[in-house]
Amino acid sequence: MMSASVTISYESESDRDEVRALLTAAFPTSAEADLVENLRADGDMLLALVARDASRIAGYIAFSQMRAPFVAVGLAPLAVRADRRNQGIAAALIDSGLSELHALGVEAVFVLGDPAYYSRFGFDAGAATGFECVYSGPYFMIRKLTLGRLPVTSGPVAYAKAFAALE
Ligand SMILES: CC(C)(COP(=O)(O)OP(=O)(O)OC[C@H]1O[C@@H](n2cnc3c(N)ncnc32)[C@H](O)[C@@H]1OP(=O)(O)O)[C@@H](O)C(=O)NCCC(=O)NCCS
Questions:
Q1: Cα(83) to centroid of ligand 1, in Å?
Q2: Which of 18, 42, 62, 106 has its CA 20 to 30 A from that of 32?
Q3: What is the pLDDT of residues 71-126, one digit of tens each?
Q4: Is 37 exposed, middle or buried (0-12, 13-18, 19+ CB in 10 A)?
Q5: Whose CA is nearest to atom 24 of ligand 1?
Q6: Contact, 7 vs 1, CB < 8 A?
């Protein structure tokens, strides 16, 4: 997959140190880097993609299993190297991720983030209001991947257990 002058591929084991460095640099603390390691260790990571320029990792996105009334994942974390921002790399990672997840049979993706940004990709805060979890509120959004409606529009949902450390 080529986009924004990066190549997007599945994260491999040999990417892990570089992914940790990217996440530690992109966020105020190492909490997101630790989250990714815990999601892997728990077997809750469903899909992780890296965007590469030349031989370096320029961006990262992870999707982990959630408990929900349908097959759902949570998008987190998403990060792009500071010197490569505003070039569509995050957008390319989100687009690739959503099409991979659709192919895997995932029915919906939840995210906690800025609606002004994520609405570009079809994430909808209004559609998430019925789903209760610790992140419920104006920044909690859902992106449906099914062609038709989701089987239900409300009920409890929960992120993978590694997220508890962030609360
Ligand atoms: C957020 C982030 C992943 C965006 O990566 P990117 O590759 O620069 O994103 P894109 O090029 O696809 O999109 C850039 C657009 O997003 C907007 N944007 C970036 N961060 C944003 C934020 N936190 N809230 C709202 N909009 C944001 C930019 O203003 C830009 O808007 P424009 O297209 O109208 O000019 C990157 O800035 C980053 O790694 N930040 C630090 C980690 C982080 O906050 N992750 C988000 C967790 S939800």
A1: 12
A2: 106
A3: 999 999 999 999 999 999 999 999 999 999 999 999 999 999 999 999 999 999 99
A4: middle
A5: 114
A6: yes
Is the pLDDT confidence value at 167 over 90?
Answer: no
pTM: 0.95
CA distance 10 to 129: 32
Q: Where residue 83 sits, what CATH number does that domain have? A: 3.40.630.30
pLDDT above 60 for 3: no
Residues belonging to the chain: 167
CA-proximal residue: ligand 1, atom 3 (nearest): 79
Residue with CA at minimum distance from ligand 1 atom 43: 79
Choice from 35, 78, 89 to test ligand 1 binding pocket (greatest atom count within 8 A of CB): 78
Q: pLDDT tens-digit profile of 7-60?
A: 999 999 999 999 999 999 999 999 999 999 999 999 999 999 999 998 799 999
Task: Kindly give the number of the ligand 1 atom that is closest to the alpha carbon of 91.
Answer: 12
Task: Round to whole Å and give the CA distance between 93 and 156.
Answer: 28
The number of distinct structural domains making up the chain is 1
Does residue 29 line the site of ligand 1, with CB under 6 A? no
Does residue 122's CB lie within 6 angstroms of at least one atom of ligand 1?
no
